[in-house]
Amino acid sequence: MNQITDRTLLLLLVGALTAYLAFQTPELGAAIVVAAAVVALLHSLLSRE
């Protein structure tokens, strides 16, 4: 069984907080989705070797 790394735990925590904020404040929902897409794209581009 793989152990959960600190990075994975941090990403899950930030994801849960983001989902909570988007649920509580619908006006932030679109901005949060765009920000998450940009971060995911940057992560994808920077992690290529």
Give the biggest sheet.
none
Provide the β-strand percentage band: under 5%
What do the pLDDT scores average to? 76
Please state the CA-atom Rg, rounded to the nearest Å: 13 Å
Count, helices: 2
Taken in chain order, the helices and strands follow as HH
Strand count: 0
Helix content: over 70%
Unreliable runs: none
**Which outline best applies?**
flat
Q: Structural class, judged by helices and strands? A: mainly alpha
Multimeric state: single chain
Distance between the termini: 27 Å
Task: Tell me what you see in this structure.
The chain is mainly α and 49 residues long. It is 82% helix and 0% strand. It is flat and about 35 Å long. The model has no long low-confidence stretch (mean pLDDT 76).
